[in-house]
Specification:
Keywords: Ammonia transport, Membrane, Transmembrane, Transmembrane helix, Transport. The protein has 482 residues and is mainly α. The protein contains 18 helices and 2 strands. The chain starts with 27 loop residues before the first helix and ends with a helix.
Amino acid sequence: MEPTFNETISNGGNPQEMDVNAPYAGSEFQYVYIMVCSFLVWMIIPGIGLLYSGLARRKSALSLLFQSFMILAVVTFQWMFWGYSLAYSRTAGPFIGDLANFGLKNVMAAPSPGSAWLPELVFCFYQLLFCACTVMLVVGGAFERGNIIPSLIFSFCWATVVYCPIACWTWNANGWLFNLPSLDFAGGGPVHIASGCSALAYAFVLGKRKHHGQQAHVKPHNTTLVFLGTVLIWFGWFGFNGGSTLNASVRAMIAVFNTNTAAAMGVLGWVFVDYFKHGYKFSVVGACEGAIAGLVGITPAAGYVSIWLAAAIGFITAAVCSLMQNVNDWIHIDEGMDVFKLHGIGGMVGSFLTGIFASSSISSLDGGTLAPGAIDGVGIQVARQLADIAAISSYSFVVSCILLYILKYIPGMNLRISEEAEMIGLDHHQFFEEQIGDWSILDMSIHGVVRPAAVSAQSVTPSSEKAKDHTVSEDSAATSSA
């Protein structure tokens, strides 16, 4: 029998007086499954760090690895402090929750608001990791020129005023998009569209990078890191989508299958476009971006569509994103991590296609959810999805801009590093003793012989650093090509 929530013991009861595990007897596999999915989702966070580190230039790569852990730390505190309550409190309004669960008050063993099969503590932890992944995506908009401390302050504020309200709209039983209803299985809106549009806002407010004519300005410095990051993201996405049923039903299994299918077809879609676009040549980074685009596209649809339609969603989303390769030039914003292209545009495509392809024959595999789309004769669902896209994209971009401008004009809150610091790189400017990769060819003695061209990291001048960066860029480009 399904556990039921009792308002008189909203925390699930006193474990010293009653057995709080009793309501879940015989169904423990449900919350164990979600905990395993949580561990998989956790892997996405360092995966994004590795991906971003490989896409950035070498001199700012370490800062992105560092931020993946720091953002997880900041968001964990925010979620425990008031984030969970603002997103998922049972007494929430249509736009944002209240502080009924402030400081995780009464969040323990009672059946969760997401699924009665899960203790609320398990549900809270799972959703915490969604928020952390989303915030990590957003800070990609500031790469190579965003000050780290202000970015962490922004992360806390952004999670509070952007992510939590949108999560409440979409997944809280009182949310206005939930009751519209729009269909968003695992985060096409709160995770992808919101992060893509907010990263675009971050890049817009900071302004373009200073590249000083460097040839590798838009080239990834380490394709291996990009590949490893994508592997962790793909692997983690099985938990991201597979756990979003919030139970271990057949629907969860098809969500996992759809996730792999869409990512694989995304690789084909992106590589197909690249192959003809770039003179019958391939790109490892392009294949990685295709996989991510496929994952983004299937996120809102994974538990609503059949396997072959998941393949179509992955292929279409990746092909569209690949064709948008020059979107940053079109809008004149230097969002070099492609967060808007992959997650913003990809999320919009996936959400739109969900409205077309969603079928009750798939959603009901969990034993009760009916979510028909246009393919089932409910054409109005496409309009609902468009309302979802418009609301989330506009809210996330506008509110992010307002928040960033407020922080920008607070005395001492330098959102952007100085031009000199940008020239030498975030790693030299904001870290001590640590550097990514082997810099010995430039600034160390090898076997007791000091190379004539060696440059000390402690005595960098703008002109010498420019030369050094150019040398490193060429070396990195050659490595990537190899």
